[in-house]
Design goal:
The protein is built from three helices and two strands, in the order αβαβα. The chain is mainly alpha-helical. The protein has a two-stranded parallel ribbon. The longest helix has 16 residues.
Length: 87
């Protein structure tokens, strides 16, 4: 989910988490993306965020090369996925 660090993107992450989706939180502000993912990974009873699974990545999604590097290097390494292709 791009824009996962704040606002609508962050809220969508929380909503998808409630549906059991494993999330990839992406934001140009890496620290903000990490905060969103951390809230999901630990769950927060007081704010109503259920415990789930989320990964965080700092990335400017308007930069295709940066997206490619994140997908090929970091996402595969941390999320343990198979091949990933970009258009």
């Amino acid at each position: 989910m791009s824009g996962a660090g704040a606002g609508i993107g962050e809220e969508i992450c929380y909503q998808l988490n409630e549906l059991g989706v494993i999330l990839v939180c992406v934001d140009v502000d890496g620290e903000a993306a990490r905060r969103t993912a951390a809230a999901i990974n630990r769950g927060d009873r007081h704010s109503g965020v259920p415990k789930g699974t989320a990964f965080a990545f700092e990335c400017d999604v308007s930069d295709k090369e940066q997206v490619g590097r994140v997908m090929q290097k970091e996402f595969r390494a941390r999320a343990g996925t198979g091949s990933t292709t970009l258009p």
